[in-house]
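README, section 4: Worked example with a bound small molecule

Sections 1 through 3 covered apo chains. Here we extend the same pipeline to holo records, where the ligand is supplied as SMILES alongside the sequence. The molecule in this example is adenosine-5'-triphosphate. Nothing else about the input changes; the structure line simply encodes the ligand pose together with the chain.
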Amino acid sequence: MNLLIFSVILWCGVWAMNRQIANSPDRDDRAARIFVPVVLGGATLFLWEGLVTGLGVSPVILPAPSDIAATFAASTATLWEDFVQTVLKGALTGYVIGCTAAFVIAVLIDRSSFLTRGLLPIGNFVAALPIVGIAPILVSWFGFDWQSKAAVVVVMVFFPVLVNTVQGLRETDAMQRDLMRTYAAGYLQTLIKLRLPAAMPFVFNGLKIASTLALIGAIVAEYFGSPTRGMGFRISTGVGSLSIDLVWAEIAVAAIVGTLLYGGVSWIEKAVTFWHPSQRR
Amino acid sequence: MKNAFPVLVVLAAILALWYAAVAPMNIRTALDQAERAGAAVEPAGARERLEVSVWRLMIDNPDHVSEGYALDRPRLPTPVQVGEELWKTTGEMVLKGRALSKRSLIYHAGITLQSTLWGFLLGTTLGILGAVAIVHSRVMDMSVMPWAIISQTIPIVALAPMIIVLSSQLGIEGRGVPKAIISAYLCYFPVLVGMVKGLRAPTASQLDLLRTYNASQRETFFKLRLPASLPYLFTSLKIGIASALVGTIVGELPTGAISGLGARILIGDQFGTPLAIWAALLAAAILAGALVTLLDVLQRVTLKRMGMQT
Amino acid sequence: ADEVKLQLKWVTQAQFAGYYVALDQGFYEEEDLDVTILPGGPDIAPTQVIAGGGADVTIEWMPAALAAREKGLPLVNIAQPFKSSGMMLTCWKDTGIEEPMDLVNRTLGVWFFGNEFPFMSWMSSLGISTDGKAEMGVEVLKQGFNVDPLLQRQADCISTMTYNEYWQVIDAGVSPDELITFKYEDQGVATLEDGIYVLEENLADPEFEDKMVRFVRASMKGWKWAEENPDDAAMIVLDNDETGAQTETHQKRMMGEIAKLTAGSNGALDPADYERTVSTLLTGGSDPVISKEPEGAWTHQISDKALN
Amino acid sequence: METDSVRTSGAKASERSPVIEARKLDLTFQTNDGAVQALRDVNLTINKGDFVSFIGPSGCGKTTFLRVVAALEHPTGGQITVNGMSPDEARRKRAYGYVFQAAGLYPWRTIAKNIKLPLEIMGYSRAQQDEQVARVLKLVDLEGFGEKYPWQLSGGMQQRASIARALAFDAEILLMDEPFGALDEIVRDHLNEQLLALWGRTGKTIGFVTHSIPEAVYLSTKIVVMSPRPGRITDVIESTLPRERPLDIRDTPEFLAIAHRVREGLRAGHAYDD
Amino acid sequence: METDSVRTSGAKASERSPVIEARKLDLTFQTNDGAVQALRDVNLTINKGDFVSFIGPSGCGKTTFLRVVAALEHPTGGQITVNGMSPDEARRKRAYGYVFQAAGLYPWRTIAKNIKLPLEIMGYSRAQQDEQVARVLKLVDLEGFGEKYPWQLSGGMQQRASIARALAFDAEILLMDEPFGALDEIVRDHLNEQLLALWGRTGKTIGFVTHSIPEAVYLSTKIVVMSPRPGRITDVIESTLPRERPLDIRDTPEFLAIAHRVREGLRAGHAYDD
Ligand SMILES: Nc1ncnc2c1ncn2[C@@H]1O[C@H](COP(=O)(O)OP(=O)(O)OP(=O)(O)O)[C@@H](O)[C@H]1O
Ligand SMILES: Nc1ncnc2c1ncn2[C@@H]1O[C@H](COP(=O)(O)OP(=O)(O)OP(=O)(O)O)[C@@H](O)[C@H]1O
Ligand SMILES: Cc1ncc(C[n+]2csc(CCO)c2C)c(N)n1
Ligand SMILES: [Mg+2]
Ligand SMILES: [Mg+2]
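The generated complex, written as structure tokens:
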């Protein structure tokens, strides 16, 4: 109970401190930008610990962060095996194939205004579909191993990237295009020198959305059949056998990997679209 | 409207591809059946056929290719089969006056729609309020935004059972609320991001103008930030409702929600009736299309009335 | 009336006919009970639901219940309507599998989510490892919710229930002679299925105890009714199926098969069956399902009062 | 005390009382690649009823100075008072009408609604709002365009609408940042005349940024010539032209002499050899 | 044949051969709320080496005419030839250097890379590219800014960069749409001089849109005055000024006379009573 009270107070204290930092002149420092959310996360974990132990929540419902950390440390081998299976083989393969295919096809259909006009509404529509629903079908088509997971990821990331890229390719303004016309620039020159650079902010928008979808897709697909490894496999069997701490360890891996993936894409975005107003300050 | 023709052509092309893909996808099943029925199949024996490519099988057994188009449990059903199944579970039900029976997809779409709308309402409210807080408070901006992103990297399917257990512990009956929570979890993020962008859309000079009038924060919000964010709002609402639908279906898949389109997909899988899965998927697609179109129309009308689009 | 929430192990189907019959025929009402039946699903762990207070009583398989008990969730079996196990492994005959030892070096589909324990025990009693194809090993797939892996030959064998998945294979056009099945019951590794479980701490409460006595009594009445009127019972199940996706033929057939499993049980747990289950689970070799003999995992406290 | 007397006395009578006083004003922007000194040691007194033009090369701090006056930017050194108060207090008293360098109309409001924006915020009644809108639309020759949206107007018309917006409420001090930049010569002449007439009628104090020497000379009672890096005042020219100014005053020797002095001051700020 | 002779002959020698010939040019835009006649019955001959200014109220079709010449817009009636070819053929032969009304630099390229853009497309060698960039940067006084990105420059500097971009390759015809709009008087004067010098050296044919009467008179051999709704030419003034023009030519009576004629033509296009 003391721990509970203490953790609540600590959390409020951290919030107050963040408030101070956020209103101080150093707030735009890289250090501040990382420090503030990290200590808030730390304080929240502490609050969680306090709540769970203070209120005596059963570990089969919600384990304490310390238990999760212990399990994490004790099962690194398992977690690594699952990471390789789900992330490296399933999600990343699917992500790379899906994004590349979408990008290439977007550039190809962009040549034809007929195809663009025909495909874009359909693409928008499909992008809105609950693609996870096709997971059982793809598992039955592509088998139990990572290939079917990659296939689900491909389908999930394909349309967001396609739609964003096509839109980005049309995003050049009339004057920028006219300039190319006065130079009598060819299709390829216009594409490489004008339209692709101008499309990059949109492409990256799609890639970022796709990066959060990729993991979800790979994990959901494992619910419909998998070898006896993988994050989705471990999560679902973990729930079944009440190893909830292991489930949370897997969730932690997913969150870390997802954040790194998203952060990585954002980092590349920053380097590539440094010129865009949203990247300048 | 001028897009109608290209869209139809592309749709026709997709259907044609789909139709063509049915033959190779189903040839093995078709040959297995034909062999059981006593037909001579080349090569004989399902195990032997596993070593042979589908193209070879199609060439060697041209008579049986067509049987792949009429299977009960196809790996890939034909568009017509899916259409028929959909009609059987919707239109025919309506004609029989049983539109809202448990066997009707209309009933299940209704269940899914209900959760989706609750999730959408909850998610957009959260997203918008969050965005308002983030735009007006730097602490919120610095501490909450990164966690909002991280929240989306957590596999919601893993949390789904815990959400159900926790909400029942909090005394919430039924599966509707947990489904709506899952749906809101997926929905709030695009709305939050879009609205933060939108509420920050006013340029420095637009803000300066109001400063010279000494306008209050409230006035700045209602007279500048909110109207300036409307195009972003609608865009994020469209993504939001699509995400809410995905969330509901994800929530219905593994949480044993006993009704709704997600549950139909699950049961279709469990009892080996692929046609039921495809029909439910198609129904979900139609639902998604209808919802997004509705918001799109709303967007056009509103923005037109606000003079923001020609 | 006293409220009782019952969490099922799986979706609404004839496997749970007794409870639906009791509800439909008013047996619960007669006992002054207001029963709510919560169907299960692939991601619902009945053990977790009952731990979270989402249900008062649950239908679970004994291996999962004992495993949960070891994890610190004190579940107690208060009644056992299922006498025998319906689980089996179904294989293609043309793969050349004739006896259990032929399984080595094959790909097998297995249910997880707490349903894998009987299989694991069986394999370790055979001395077969489950870490991949090998001289003395098998490749295990986490099989999904359907029988496609067998039909499409992604696996040589899959887990089936006598009352459910097996018939789906048959319905897909496969004739029984093409298949060979290994029933756990025949292999001597049968474990108890569908028992009625509650939390140990609740049993100390006389009011709860009384409620459970009435619940078990009414439920068993439902089971007996279902055994005697299988077709009507199946229709009752069908009426209660919210998904509207179940078919009459399948449920009627399932009811017929279920009746074979409940036959021979009056509802009280036979300690011999329990012992057999425990010893099967303990022979896990290097990786047993439970590590020590459980204590207090069952009681006749309820069934004695309910059935006599 | 002084402030009070300024605010209550009539326009003509108080012509010589100071409204804006800047003393040793400094303003340095901190940017990623070092500090930019936008204003250095700026001393300037603007009296009530003055029409002050600011002229100088791109980047010399004209806009920055206007923004400091309107409390949109805070000086890093020196003092500035507006009616004896800090600019921020004056802003809270709604002393300013500001015309920005870009029109900055809100695209979701019609022209009339754009003009009403400050009136709504300042709590004018409906009737007053309509009356003001009609008046200023006429002033800038946009009668009949009230119900159009900004994008339905040409660039020049938009700029006029933004001028109308600043004139719709009765601000004591009018700050205009290159208001006539996008207009052609004829329209510009016309609006110059209108502005002079308005100023004559109301006795407002006006700060006016322009790139055009004739415009500065034609309009102002005081011309401030600025020079960049760091932004500073290099010359302040008190106009000797009468308050009443027909367009052809621009051909008088007096006019040309002032223009010449401005041009010389301006030229000094550039670094061309020729 | 004729085309060939034009292209090979020296600048001075061919001064009187027509480069651009418009006959009865019409251009109507179809918009949602009806047709807009942007150009009507435009007849104009521009000879090799001419410096032609276009002046007229906002929306009178100046930009549209330049765009028709550059084949960015297609007339709905009449004919236009450029060097005896269609504008589109001339475009494909890379006859044009075009300076747009807005700078339109690509934000992802540095200033130097922006200037290199046309050179890359036209296949200049690396060395040639660097040489040209250095030359034009000097011409517009932007030495040392080559490695900056567009947003790091003030508006006026961006405009100069876009002028440099158009001058970097050797286009026969230079089309400039209000290139000096955002610049202050001094810079403007300076660039006017530079432009005249360049024109004198190279004998390019220049089409130049401006709002400033003195600028038009100072620069041009021919001034085209246009009037809106529908856009048409109301006056074509052949300048009597010599080709050699020091800045103070602007005070000569001859200059003022031409300016007066332009102003009158312009005024006729407006509807002010005063
Ligand atoms: N927000 C800012 N951050 C950094 N530097 C700035 C900022 N605003 C202006 N500056 C710099 O301050 C100096 C003065 O700018 P200011 O806008 O006042 O010039 P100006 O005289 O109005 O020029 P123009 O005629 O181009 O409008 C410039 O060098 C500019 O780069
Ligand atoms: N793409 C277009 N669609 C419809 N109308 C157009 C289009 N482009 C120009 N116009 C119309 O054609 C007329 C001439 O426009 P143009 O841009 O040539 O004017 P301008 O003389 O260059 O004016 P400014 O001085 O403002 O640049 C205007 O009435 C304009 O509204
Ligand atoms: C993830 C998953 N786990 C278990 C089963 C199978 N299952 C659940 S309850 C039950 C009893 C008979 O229906 C069986 C066999 C499945 N299909 N999917
Ligand atoms: Mg300025
Ligand atoms: Mg123009």
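What to look for in the output: The longest helix of chain E spans residues 185-202. Residues 3-95+173-273 of chain E form a domain with the Rossmann fold fold (CATH 3.40.50.300).

Section 5 describes how to batch many such records.
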